[in-house]
Design goal:
- The complex is a heterodimer.
- Chain A has helices at 2-22, 25-41, 45-50, 68-76, 112-120, 149-170, 175-182, 203-237, 240-247, 250-282, 291-318, 322-336, 338-348, 353-358, 365-375, 382-410, 420-428, and strands at residues 56-63, 99-106, 126-133, 136-142, 190-192, 198-200.
- By secondary structure, chain A is an alpha/beta fold.
- In chain A, helix 11 runs antiparallel to helix 15 and helix 13 packs parallel to helix 15.
- Chain B is of the alpha/beta class.
- Chain B folds into two domains: 4-221, P-loop containing nucleotide triphosphate hydrolases (Rossmann fold); 223-322, Alpha-Beta Plaits, CATH 3.30.70.100.
- Chain B contains eleven helices and 13 strands.
- In chain B, a hairpin with a 2-residue loop joins strand 1 (4-15) and strand 2.
- The chains are: A alpha/beta, B alpha/beta.
């Protein structure tokens, strides 16, 4: 009978906290409408990415006494929009540009001043000046000040290829044959999983996926932790705390608030995580988030949440306003930002000393472990994962125990905030 | 069947160097209305919070409804001294929330909420946000939250403070009705008239110590009346001059309300003898011994300094008006 009463009271407190957080304008906009808009925008992404850029049309003048560069440029300038895809090495570019340029060869360098004037009023799209000096021919490309970076890249690439063609021709070699010989061989890198299935390697994505998991966990946990902090302070300052304590015990109130905000964090995790997965699905890259990664998230979410939430709610109970809370929360926040600052070295070397040590430092441990476990460049030893889970679980128990004691004393305290020594006394009090 | 609803034995509570409650012991029987009186900072709210198990005593034992208040929260109604509501919540939602905490089913809660809102004259507010209500309305709302689950024990900390006379009277009548229906009520107050009107038993604490724990009839018989009301038959000036020579008078003042002198006697003076002396000194239309009020008892027990101040003020007043 008594247990039923406890369960009911915890449930009622939890539901109120959940409902009055989730149904506020700020939360609806930040955690539901925004990801909803992102979700709705996913089908539009390919359309946006595939859209064409502004066409490059007009005249290009080449001052070249030999007339060889102008002829080569006519060959190297893109003839179709598709030829403008992947202009730079290593860059992925799916957008296209229409190119319709007329190349004018000007053998007499004395026309340079006149052509520069045309460039200034944009009646000329580019002026190329080839001149000879002691080190061989030099090439200058002059463009109007308002020329777009993409147009500049197209002109640079075409000019570079034209100059190379002329050099090869002067050396009596076959340009097409040399190009084929010197082309970078394409290497198809694939990872083979223990069950024999193969997946394509994408180094950049492999860095971003663990960061995504860590940021998702961090955002959900810190946001709900902040809600917990502010709602506790509000209940204290509006004097509703004593009304609640007339109906529930401090521990029931604490449990209810923790459970309610766990629901809030869960909603955020589902909304943003869902949008992330939907985005990966839209570009057919769901394979970068295997099921074990999601299971690790399920394991580390409660450990991360209860660690942060217990700190927030106990500090909220000890102070009278948010400003006072900021000074007490500082040390914990410094530790919580460790994974945000060190995520790159941790993901690059998930079994390095830095990553291993940080895995056992609460309250940062859950965030570091999710980085290591979802990075998977090299498997994290299972014993380390289990030990980190044990340390985090023990931390949760210790922080909840201390937090409950601070909460019990702090909820009815008004006036100046407690010093760290006073907090210790509260924890030790009977 | 045990009739004790609240039992405190040698309860102590300290906050740092402050000994807020010292060895307080008392008992409250089922169905009684007990007034818990004391000056500001006497330890009333601390004692009430310990009874509610919101604070734990440093030593001593507290028994509420046969055990700890923690196990009986669903059977206790509590109105704390500090008024607090969720400002953004709607009135009906707040009361439903309180009802759910106390284990009342939603349908039943809605019926009770409607009935109580009408009973305390708060119709048409159920869809308003708590912050939209006046302070007095918020207080009545919080009172409903304390009684909605029909608890056998009701603890009210300063229930009448901040209320206008009409609402004070309304709440008094509700408290009386609850008492008639068998509810045991403990309430702290500074409103002595209210306490005198409602209480069967009075507890008075001062500087954390219990200084009085008696029924109203015990108080009336224990505290000798030392004030005589005397209505002069002649002019007030003449009566004032005549009364100045009567021995045993500590102070006197003219009461416009009573149209009489309120003559306060010195400690140890026989009131019967003093009345005879007063009648001999000046012709009177009416003379009577005034019954000791809770106000008098309060002042006598907790404030010698207050008594002296009042005596001086009264003498000065008589002198200013008639001297």
């Amino acid at each position: 009978m008594a247990e039923r009463g406890v369960t009911r009271r915890v449930r009622v407190i939890a539901w109120r906290d959940f409902r009055y957080t989730v149904l506020t304008k700020g939360f609806l906009i930040g955690a539901i409408i925004l990801p909803g808009i992102m979700f709705a925008a996913i089908p539009l992404l390919p359309l946006l990415i595939d859209s064409k850029t502004a066409p490059l049309t007009g005249r290009v003048a080449v001052i070249d006494p030999s007339n060889s560069i102008a002829k080569a440029l006519e060959i190297t300038l893109p003839k179709t929009p598709e030829e403008t895809i992947d202009l730079e090495e290593g860059a992925t570019n799916t957008s296209t540009t229409d190119v319709a340029l007329t190349v004018e060869s000007v053998p007499d360098p004395s026309h340079a001043a006149d052509l520069r004037l045309q460039l200034r009023d944009s009646s000329l799209q580019a002026l190329i000046i080839i001149s000879s000096n002691d080190d061989g021919p030099s090439t200058e490309l002059l463009i109007p000040s308002e020329a777009s970076p993409r147009h500049t890249t197209i002109l640079e690439k075409s000019l570079r290829e034209a100059v190379t063609r002329v050099r090869v021709s002067k050396a009596n070699e076959d340009y097409e044959r040399l190009t084929k010989l010197l082309a970078r061989p394409k290497i198809d890198t694939r990872r083979v999983s223990p069950d024999g299935s193969e997946s394509n390697e994408n180094a950049q994505l492999r860095m971003l996926v663990p960061a995504g998991f860590m940021f998702l966990l961090w955002m959900a946990v810190i946001t709900s932790g902040n809600y917990l902090l502010t709602s506790t302070i509000e209940e204290k300052s509006s004097r509703v705390m004593e009304v609640l304590l007339s109906a529930v015990s401090p521990i029931e109130l604490l449990c209810g608030k923790l459970v309610g905000q766990a629901g809030v964090a869960g909603v955020m995790l589902l909304m943003y995580g869902g949008v992330g997965l939907a985005g990966l699905g839209a570009v057919a890259m769901l394979d970068v988030v295997p099921l074990p990664h999601l299971l690790w998230l399920v394991v580390w979410f409660p450990l991360a949440y209860f660690t942060v939430a217990a700190i927030m709610v106990s500090l909220g109970s000890a102070v009278s306003d948010l400003r006072e809370a900021q000074s007490l929360i500082g040390p914990a926040m410094i530790l919580l930002t460790v994974p945000l600052i060190l995520w790159i070295p941790i993901v690059e070397s998930p079994n390095g000393t830095l990553a291993t040590v940080c895995s056992f430092i609460p309250p940062a441990a859950p965030f570091v472990m999710i980085l290591r476990l979802t990075g998977a460049n090299e498997p994290v030893p299972l014993v380390q994962a289990l030990l980190a889970m044990f340390v985090s679980a023990a931390t949760v128990v210790a922080i909840l125990w201390a937090g409950a004691r601070v909460f019990r004393v702090g909820v009815l305290m008004q006036g100046k905030p407690p010093s760290p020594m006073e907090l210790l006394r509260w924890i030790k009090a009977r | 069947m045990n009739n004790l609803v609240i039992q405190l034995a040698n309860v102590n509570k300290c906050f740092g160097a402050l000994h807020a409650v010292r060895n307080v012991s008392f008992e409250i029987q089922r169905g009684q209305v007990c007034g818990f009186l004391g000056p500001n900072g006497a330890g009333k709210s601390t004692t009430i919070r310990m009874i509610m198990s919101i604070l734990l005593p440093d030593s001593g034992a507290i028994n509420v409804l046969g055990g700890s208040a923690l196990d009986a929260k669903d059977r206790i109604g509590y109105l704390p001294e500090e008024r607090g509501l969720y400002r953004k919540m709607r009135v009906a939602d707040f009361l439903r929330f309180m009802a759910k905490l106390k284990g009342i089913a939603r349908a039943d809660a809605d019926v009770r909420i409607r009935s109580w809102l009408e009973r305390v004259e708060l119709p048409n507010v159920s869809q308003k946000r708590c912050e939209e209500l006046s302070k007095g309305m918020q207080q009545k709302l919080q009172f409903i939250g304390a009684v909605l689950h029909e608890p056998p024990l009701l603890i009210l900390d300063e229930p009448f403070s901040g209320l206008d006379p009409v609402n004070r009277r309304l709440l008094s009548s509700v408290v009386r009705q609850l008492q008639e229906s068998g509810t045991t009520i403990l309430f702290s107050t500074h409103q002595m008239e209210q306490a005198e009107d409602l209480c069967d038993q009075v507890l008075l604490i001062h500087k954390g110590e219990k200084v009085l724990d008696e029924t109203m009839s015990q108080i009336h018989s224990r505290f000798d009346p030392r004030t005589i009301l005397a209505q002069p038959a002649n002019s007030i000036d003449a009566a004032t001059q005549a009364l100045k020579v009567v021995a045993g008078i500590e102070s006197m003042r003219w009461s416009l309300e009573q149209k009489s002198f309120e003559i306060r006697l010195l400690e140890g003076v026989d009131p019967q003898h003093a009345m005879v002396q007063i009648m001999r000194a000046t012709p009177l239309r009416r003379v009577e011994l005034q019954r000791a009020t809770l106000d008098d008892v309060f002042v006598k027990l907790v404030g010698d300094s207050v008594t002296k101040f009042e005596a001086t003020s009264a003498t000065e007043q008589v002198e200013a008006n008639y001297g």
